[in-house]
Amino acid sequence: MPRSCCATCRIPNYLKGTECPYGDDNLVTVGSKTQSCQATFHTNSRYKMCQKPAFKMKCCKSCQIPDGALPDCPYGDDVRISWDGVQRTCPEVAATTGKNALCHLLPEACCGTCHIPDHLEGLECPHGDDNYLSINDEQLSCQDAFNKYGKTHLCQNPFVNKRCCKSCQIPVGAPPDCPYGDEDVISVNNKSMSCQAAFNSFGKARMCAIPNYNKKCCQSCQILPGAPADCPYGDDPTVRINNQWSSCEQAIAIIANMITDQSIFIRRIHGYDVLCCDAVLWPMEGGVLACADKSCAMCRVPSMEGPP
Q: Which domain holds residue 51?
């Protein structure tokens, strides 16, 4: 009824030519609710609503794109989103959980929060690691999850790889069979320790002979080029003799003082699983020990089921 309301509908000269000379209508109906344009955005995406011609005509002021708006996010984040059954803002969720999960699930609703700056565009992990992962109903940081379940194992999971994208990046030049190096923490006999601590306690050759530990300590268990096949890791730091842990030299000295027959001496060493392939000592008269030719290793890496 433009003629009947011509005075009310008259556009002032300073507003002529503008896209929204009358501003928003007081009320709009969306679904079963009649409310203001701004109230509508509390439960509906501004971006999606403003794509609808009828709504945009009634809420033309609210649907105007501000100067300097991001091309991929003209209206910014939605006012509220539902996250874990709770109404929150996008920045609140990002600060709590991290951006990777949020931006994967709600890229349009949180387009402002998820916007990638030009200097980070094209990177594999522009948002960095998320703050936590939910694994087996437990919230863990990426590093805590790696310590508990193993980095190599977790980073092969697409969900974890996405959430921990920075930590799961494979260094340039990393070997395919050991992309992340040794695990920071491994469990041996229900105790957490580093690979090196496990080697010190149970012997490197014994640990690396077990497939599970060889995989978790893949960097340390790599056999260097030129290493002898029967002594790939050199002497173990300690060996068990008479229920005591001793160095290779001490262990051989103990046996040599008890046994003078060379053939029995060698068998006795093998009987105690002494891994002293680099430090073989031969018994001499009077109990004096002398180093044998190290190329003639008398000890072999035994087949072990697990650490003692």
A: 12-58
